[in-house]
Design brief:
The complex is a heterodimer. By secondary structure, chain A is of the alpha/beta class. Chain A contains 16 helices and 11 strands. The radius of gyration of chain B is 30 Å and the shape is elongated. The chains are: A alpha/beta, B alpha+beta.
């Protein structure tokens, strides 16, 4: 059984060729074999998973029907709430936290017959680009065990890349699914802001956060998205826009699709090996019949600075609830209330989280608000307008995902600025709220994966998925064998 | 006396912030109940507990109530208003921020016309005059939970937090610093409370915390235009406390300034036992709230047509009703004010006035015997055993001379006790007034015969004895003689 193909799994389960119980047995076996090395999962509860699979089988037999994700094992980033299953956000602060409710996307997945396998490692509160900021463990890239899987959704990307799960949920604030997808040779989609409910996704930066799916094919992403997308009254920012049948949409032809290449994404800092692979990818798009043209997104240069004001500002407020009063880590024997706050937060949060809380608190402070946060929101509008203008001319944009291939574990952890620059090609989609996808594009001569980014206009996930699907069918990447 | 003298040299400048709980069944951002008095932390869910990943969803009913309040207070309602986060740490604030409104509140630039004046010791208003007080803004926000620092066996070591209030919808109503005396502040608050009750947006219950007030006060030398340094007073649990705390604070500030001292901007708490204010620890108020637009909620957009409809369908407001009672029913301002303080009382009065055809009598009964009986039995006017219609019938019975006013009181008491109408009560107790002349004359003759000495004295010029004979006849008839008829008959009969 190929655990990397969700579509095949659900077809087999729906036709009773295999049971959900058998599928999860295979997935649990794969996790047992590979994860001691890769360390993608923080929590796997085999008995719970087996019970859930049996329930799904019973539902299928009793109802004599089929489900869109029948028996499909899904890995879930540990910042998405799962009722009764520990949800840590990769933080010591929540080392013992078990939510009493499930995120809307989890509810929808389970209703569709999917089985949550376990919770995956991530950078603490999704802050990071390597999954090294986890309070618990370092996750390894399955194509080079000395390298990072990207982040912050590194565990989810590895789970899908290594065939431990057919699908995975990650989350995006500035590229946290696309970059690890690129580093692990899988597909990751950041949908339009509002396309997926954020209810139950632990907030990092509310105006930028998205739940984001990962898979091994465009078709799997399409069926995944169809199941979890749509309005949720729990999330006021979720969009009422109707959810198309993405699976049907991706089979539409791409010949004649107008595709732009924004020149600002190919400047200084782009690794030559990555550039070579992306250039080839763009040539492939031309070969597919796309009408490729040069476009400009002039405010791109401000994106990183903009992002690193807005995201920490919102984070500083979102992380205020971790005060040791109701749940989570509490320092032993606090002297008084302020000592409890200070020491619990000082001991419970890691250094990257503290750095961002400090930056964000500063940016929102009276006297600085106008110069930082308010100004950053204006720049954000300019960035979005760049995209609005570009999408008057083209339907999609092609860019690199990350300026470099996967880097070595430990290489950047002491250099936050270098780490922040890993996000240079991804943050704009979050600032603009548009859909963006990373798909496998090639490998460097050293055998490191490189992803290609497709950006689309608001709510045009269909266009993005369609191009990804056509591209992957025409230009499959031949990957070197996994290390585990 | 010295203090009075000092105070006289200064003018207070007062502004008020009122928090009114909006009368919704569920909280502002989740479906939890707003019911008061539930066991601690039972009315809670992931949203109002501030659990990771939970998000707010706005309660439409709360918006409607807030818009109606804003309109009734003369505010312009912003077609787009924005929720903002007010960030601070406190154990009863589960998210570490309160969702409020900041830059663009729901309503702005309001004004109310309030009847204000000094009170005599008997509560009569003298020097009454209308004053305009401006309202800076009305915005929506969520309430925090409640910290319990005392009253439990382990309170020396522990504090407890009850989050039942967390997320309860509030309207914060901020006035301009327009009040120049504690009395004006009191009159404004009374007016405000009445208005909110009329709109049905708030139950006005200060004990349960559904109406709360903070005051800002400074003083300045009379004649000065500049503002002094203001002090905020909190922990004001009734309008009387507001007034007393303001009086105390005005005098304190005036004295400090008169002695060459300086007022520090601070928050002080009212101690109702010591009847004084004392400073809150300054650490607790050194806040930079770091307001920013709440990214979890979209801007609140209201259709202008909907706002207009809300305005069109506002009920008659207490001030207008009070004025109408004075002109339409010829009532005193005091009675009109009393009758309009609670909408149900005003409704009762109007129905009774209609049914009786005698508004002044209706007013007297409503503020007099009825209020007394309700208070004594602990009933609300809605539960009154005597309906407005039946009281109207009773008043008609008096006016037609069928029973006397005195007997009517007995009838009313019995109606209130038994819940019967006036007619059956009068019949049952045999209280119909005797207006029949031959019958009354018979009694008069009997009384004359029994009191020859008094009769002689009366005839020799002791006019005061007339009342004695009235009393005797009343005694004989058990108070049922029609006083008017009796009077006429007695005048003649005693001379004969």
């Amino acid at each position: 059984m190929d655990l990397r193909d969700a579509w095949e799994i659900r077809e087999s389960v729906n036709r009773r060729k295999v049971s959900a119980a058998e599928v999860v047995e295979a997935a649990l076996a794969r996790i047992e074999a590979a994860d001691p090395v890769l360390r993608a999962f923080l929590t796997v509860e085999p008995e719970r998973v087996r019970a859930r699979a049996s329930e799904t089988d019973a539902v299928l037999v009793r109802g004599n029907g089929s489900l869109p994700l029948a028996g499909v094992p899904v890995a879930v980033k540990d910042n998405i709430c799962t009722r009764g299953v520990r949800t840590t956000c990769g933080s010591k602060m929540l080392f013992n936290y078990t939510p009493p409710y499930s995120a809307t996307v989890i509810e929808r997945l389970e209703r569709a017959g999917a089985i949550v396998l376990g919770k995956t490692n991530c950078d603490e509160f999704a802050m990071g680009s390597s999954t090294e900021n986890s309070a618990f463990q370092v996750t390894r890239n399955p194509y080079d065990l000395d390298r990072v899987p990207g982040g912050s959704s590194g565990g989810s990307a590895v789970a899908v890349a290594a065939g431990m799960a057919a699908l995975a949920l990650g989350s995006e604030t500035g590229g946290s699914v696309r970059q690890p997808a690129s580093f692990c040779n899988v597909l990751g989609l950041k949908p339009t802001y509002g396309r997926l409910s954020r209810y139950g996704l632990v907030a990092f930066a509310s105006s930028l956060d998205n739940v984001a799916p990962l898979a091994n094919s465009a078709r799997d992403l399409a069926v995944f998205l169809s199941v979890i997308a749509g309005r949720d009254w729990h999330d006021s920012t979720s969009a009422p826009a109707p959810v198309p049948d993405y699976v049907a949409e991706i089979n539409q032809p791409v010949r004649g699709m107008r595709v732009g290449v924004p020149r600002e994404f190919f400047g200084e800092g782009l690794d030559p090996q990555v550039k070579k692979i992306i250039d080839a990818g763009i040539r492939n798009a031309v070969a597919l019949g796309c009408e490729v043209s040069d476009v400009s997104l002039p405010h791109t240069q401000y994106a990183i600075a903009d992002y690193y004001i807005i995201a920490p500002a919102e984070a500083s407020s979102n992380l205020a609830r971790y005060d040791a009063v109701r749940y989570g880590y509490r320092t032993p024997n606090p002297r008084d209330l302020s000592d409890m706050y200070r020491r619990s937060r000082g001991e419970g949060f890691g250094s990257e989280v503290k750095r961002r809380v400090m930056i964000g608190t500063y940016a929102l402070s009276s006297g600085y608000y106008e110069a930082y946060y308010a100004r950053a929101m204006k720049v954000r509008t300019l960035i979005r307008q760049d995209y609005d203008r570009a999408f008057e001319k083209v339907e999609a944009l092609l860019t690199p995902v990350s300026p470099t291939p996967p880097f070595k574990i430990g290489e950047r952890i002491e250099d936050p600025l270098a780490m922040y620059l890993s996000d240079i090609y991804t943050v704009t989609a979050n600032l603009a709220g548009i859909p963006a996808l990373s798909l496998p594009c090639g490998f460097t001569p050293d055998g490191l994966p490189v992803g290609l980014q497709i950006l689309g206009n608001q709510f045009q996930e269909s266009t993005v998925l369609r191009l990804a699907s056509a591209y992957m069918q025409a230009c499959p990447v031949s990957a070197p064998p996994l290390k585990v | 006396m010295r203090a009075e003298g000092i105070v006289m040299e200064f003018e207070p400048v007062i502004g008020l912030e009122v928090h009114a709980q909006l009368l919704t069944n569920s909280k502002l951002f989740c479906g939890c109940s707003t019911r008061f008095g539930a066991p601690p932390n039972s009315n809670t869910c992931p949203v109002c507990l501030g659990l990771p990943g939970a998000l707010p969803a706005l309660n439409r009913k709360a918006v409607t109530l807030a818009v109606r309040s804003a309109l009734a207070l003369g505010c312009a309602v912003n077609p787009t208003s924005i929720f903002a986060r007010k960030n601070y740490f406190y154990p009863d604030l589960p998210k570490g921020y309160q969702i409020s409104q900041y830059d663009r509140p729901l309503g702005q630039h309001g004004r109310v016309e309030v009847c204000s004046g000094e009170r005599t010791a008997a509560g009569q208003i003298v020097n009454r005059r209308k004053k305009i007080f401006r309202i800076t803004r009305l915005h929506m926000e969520e309430d925090a939970g409640k910290s319990l620092h005392e009253g439990l066996p382990d309170s020396d070591r522990k504090s407890y937090v009850d989050l039942n209030r967390s997320g309860v919808p509030l309207a914060e109503i901020v006035s301009e610093p327009d009040f120049r005396s504690s009395q004006e502040a009191y009159d404004y608050l009374t007016h405000l409370r009445k208005t909110l009750l009329y709109l049905g947006v708030c139950d006005g219950n200060m004990e349960e915390g559904s109406l709360r007030c903070d005051a800002n006060v400074s003083v300045r030398p009379k004649g000065s235009d500049a503002f002094g340094t203001k002090v905020e007073i909190k922990n004001l649990n009734s309008f009387r406390f507001v007034q007393r705390a303001l009086d105390y604070e005005i005098e304190r500030q005036a004295r400090v300034l008169a002695e060459g001292g300086r007022i520090y901007q601070e928050t002080r708490l009212w101690d109702e036992v010591k009847e004084s204010t004392f400073p809150m620890r300054s650490k607790e108020e050194a806040h930079d709230y770091r307001y920013f637009p709440e990214p979890d909620l979209l801007p609140l957009k209201l259709q202008p047509a909907w706002i207009e409809e809300m305005e069109r369908t506002l009920p008659e407001l207490p001030h207008a009703r009070e004025e109408r009672f004075v002109t339409e029913y010829d009532l005193s301002h005091e009675d009109a004010m009393l009758l309009t303080s609670i909408p149900a009382v005003a409704d009762y009065f109007e129905e009774c006035a209609r049914n009786s055809g005698n508004p002044r009598a209706a007013a007297n009964w409503a503020v007099g015997d009825l209020t007394y009986a309700l208070k004594a039995s602990g009933k609300e006017i809605e539960e009154s055993p005597v309906s407005a219609r039946e009281l109207g019938v009773l008043i008609r019975t008096i006016d037609s001379g069928e029973i006397s006013g005195k007997i009517a009181k007995t009838v009313f008491e019995e109606m209130f006790r038994s819940g019967e109408g006036s007619a059956p009560v009068i019949r049952r107790l045999g209280l119909v007034q005797i207006s029949d002349e031959p019958a009354l004359l018979g009694v008069i003759e009997k009384v004359k015969a029994a009191n020859p000495r008094q009769l002689a004295d009366y005839r020799s010029g002791k006019d005061k004895l007339f009342g004695y004979f009235v009393g005797q006849v009343m005694k004989e008839t058990q108070g049922q003689a029609n006083p008017k008829v009796l009077n006429e008959l007695l005048q003649k009969a005693l001379r004969e």
